[in-house]
Amino acid sequence: MSWIELTAYLGTGVIAGVMAGLMGVGGGIVVVPALVWIFAEAGLGGDWIFHLAVGTSLATLIGTGSTSAYFHHRRGAVRWDLVLVLVPWLVVGAWIGTAVAGSLEEIWLRRIFGLFLVYVGSSMLFKRAQGESGELSGTLGIGLIGTGIGSLSALLGIGGGTLIVPFFARSGLDMRRAIASSAACGPPIALAGVFGYIAVGWGRDGLPAGSTGFVYWPAVVGILLASIPSAPLGALLAHSLPLLVLRRIFALLVLAVAAKLLWDPG
To answer: Where are the domains of the chain?
Structure first.
């Protein structure tokens, strides 16, 4: 691995960590597009660049997500009773998502991720109010929702917070507890997804040395070295910067990346 490549991973980690702390967005939204570009420039991944980026992103989220969940737990904000109900379904969904990803051509994985970025960018530009307090769905409802969120999260290489936070908030949790409980759900999704991407990527031709299936470990280490210490900086900046303006700027950048993936996938 060259110094330029390592610098790119460290830079990606810094940006992902700061944006996670500043905006509350999942690192995968930043990490996956960055890795696609880095892998392409470095000639890594062959026909599996996007799959490798998604699997690697999930591996980084085990570390960053666990750190975030730990600090939320120390503040007593995690509703572990709800997390423990939802997590088994998220894990099942993650395995389904990786199985689907392994059968998809790269162009379709790019398009699905691009459409998801359109959703994220639009939601950040036109944020809607959360629903009123209520109760969590019944067992069937939780199973369907949890499996769906886990599948999409693993398919896209994200921790699921973009989907889980609104679900918890509309089910009666205040936003602080919704975010904290969502953070605790991220590592199980990421861990299940990593095992899935290792399995579906095992033995594929064209994967670089240092990878296990669709997980490239040098990138994982480089991103984690920078993202974990950067997240507290983002949280600190959140109290001193104009978040509404920054949120809109970031949303426009997300939409620009989405346009690149959807209309110029090469």
So the answer is: 3-263
